[in-house]
Structures are given as C-alpha cells and as structure tokens.
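Database export, one record per block. Field names are fixed; values are copied verbatim from the stored entry.
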Amino acid sequence: MNDKTEFSERLRSAMAASGYAPRPAVLRREFNSRYWGNPVTCQGASRWLRGLSIPSQDKLVVLAEWLSIEPQILRFGGEVTEHTGEQSNDWGIDLPPQEKETLGAYLGLPESKRQLAHELITSLAKLSRHCDLDDK
C-alpha cells in the first residue's frame, strides 16, 4: 500500500467515525463549508477518497479540524486522538490581559469566523494607516 492509499483509508475511516458517509459529495460539501480558499471539486474529493492524491497541508488541517483528529495522524497514521482545537496562548510576549482575552477568544472561534475577524482587523489596520485614525 502507498501513502495515498493509506491516507484515503484514514480519511474514510475518520469520516465514518464522525458520522459522515465517506462519499465525494459529502466530503466536498463539508470541506468547502470550512475552507477559506478555492473550493475542492467533487472530482478532487473523490481523488482523496480513492487514494489518488493527498490534499495540501492547509487543506489537511481543515479536514483534521472538521473530523476532530490531529492533522499528522490523518496524514501519516498512528494512534487517533481527539483534537481539542485548543492552542497555546503563550506567545513569548507580555500582553495586557484584555489583549490576551481577545486573542484567546479569536482562537476559540470556528475557522469561518476567524477568517471574518482576520478580514475585519486587516481592513481596520489598512484604513488606520491610510487615514491616520486615532482612537481618541
């Protein structure tokens, strides 16, 4: 068996364990509802499920988060553990409590909401640079 075939077996198994039928249409729908980039086609999803290709790392992370497993387990195998989605809040910098709370809340958001927050913050930063806005 090769890497692609083994990946497809893990993907099908993880989908079934999460209560989803391991079908291309289901995979396409669920993946695209969570992914920020170009949507995967039904043919692309089918290639993942049939062991003809392996998704890129950014797509693999979205699949793993959706299926509640660690990305490296989905990609390479090993013992499947539940993925909590929690990330360390220790960035090695001293932040005021309010900023730590804001970053923690951001990290707790689902991926689609994180993208929206990212776009809002980026837009505000650009506006601030261009208009020299102050919070007075």
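Remark 1: The longest helix spans residues 111-131.
Remark 2: The chain has a mean pLDDT of 82.
End of record.
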